[in-house]
């Protein structure tokens, strides 16, 4: 459960630890932890609470890490807009979602207004 800054730090560490175990480089471990921080921060800022599930994922000969961030917050009305660098409805810089997308290999956001948001992202060990 993600509700506060402490939970963001824990999710970040959990991601980094699994990334290390899976054989990601030191740089990639930081990259993955950073992407986790961004989606976790969005949960705290916009949805107040949610969950982050971090797991190992395999696709044929590829192995990697999958992060799913889910909340039942207000949702996002215009996803294309939310993915633009610099778009924010808060006090941020509007870098979180586009930044996380750039850092990961696969990135998908599903959101329904009034229902919540689900961000799924993956990175493969190179
Ligand atoms: N989980 C979420 N629930 C509802 N709205 C969200 C969620 N995540 C992002 N958003 C919306 O998408 C916008 C863009 O998010 P993004 O993380 O890119 O930037 P930001 O949070 O505004 O600023 P930054 O992340 O740079 O501090 C947010 O301002 C907010 O309106
Ligand atoms: Mg953000």
List SSEs in N-to-C order.
Answer: HHEEHHEE
| Helical content band | 40-55%
Tell me the major beta sheet.
4 strands, antiparallel
- The secondary-structure class comes to alpha+beta
Rg over CA atoms, rounded to whole Å, is 14 Å
Query: Total strand count, please?
Result: 4
The overall average pLDDT, rounded, is 97
Q: Give the amount of beta strand, in percent.
A: 25-35%
Q: How many H/I helices?
A: 4
Strand arrangement within the widest β-sheet reads 1-2-4-3
Low-confidence stretches: none
Q: Could you say which small molecules are bound to this protein?
A: adenosine-5'-triphosphate, magnesium ion
End-to-end distance, in Å?
30 Å
What general outline do the C-alpha atoms trace? globular
């Amino acid at each position: 459960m993600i509700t506060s800054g402490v939970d963001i730090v824990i999710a970040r560490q959990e991601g980094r630890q699994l990334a290390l175990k899976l054989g990601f480089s030191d740089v990639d471990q930081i990259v993955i932890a950073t992407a986790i921080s961004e989606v976790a921060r969005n949960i705290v800022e916009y949805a107040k609470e949610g969950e982050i599930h971090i797991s190992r994922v395999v696709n044929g000969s590829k192995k990697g890490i999958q992060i799913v961030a889910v909340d039942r917050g207000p949702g996002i009305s215009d996803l294309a807009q939310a993915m633009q660098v610099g778009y924010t409805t808060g006090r941020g810089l509007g870098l979180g979602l586009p930044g996380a997308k750039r850092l990961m290999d696969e990135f998908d956001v599903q959101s329904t207004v009034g229902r919540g948001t689900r961000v799924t992202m993956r990175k493969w060990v190179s």
